[in-house]
Here is the input.
Amino acid sequence: MKSIPIKLWKKYLKSKGLRYIRTKSSHEIWDIPGGSLLRPITVDKNYKDVPITHIHTSLKTLDVNKKDFLKELEELKKGKKK
Here is the structure.
């Protein structure tokens, strides 16, 4: 797995039910409405691509395995999933 464009990452987060909550410095904070995640997902808006380490830690927070993530990502790229 490699880094992915930040626009695609945000699209993925939206598809998982997360919403943009606020910005703190250069970081966007994303969470499920009502704040039900153990910890919110942080997105550094200065990056062009999301580093793989950030993806891995966020997937752990979302309780999503790599195989499912890659499948869902391909669906998003093809426009099959909103």
Q: What stands out?
A: The domain at 4-78 is CATH 3.30.920.30 (Metal Transport, Frataxin; Chain A). The first helix runs from residue 6 to 15. Residues 60 and 66 are 10 Å apart (CA to CA).
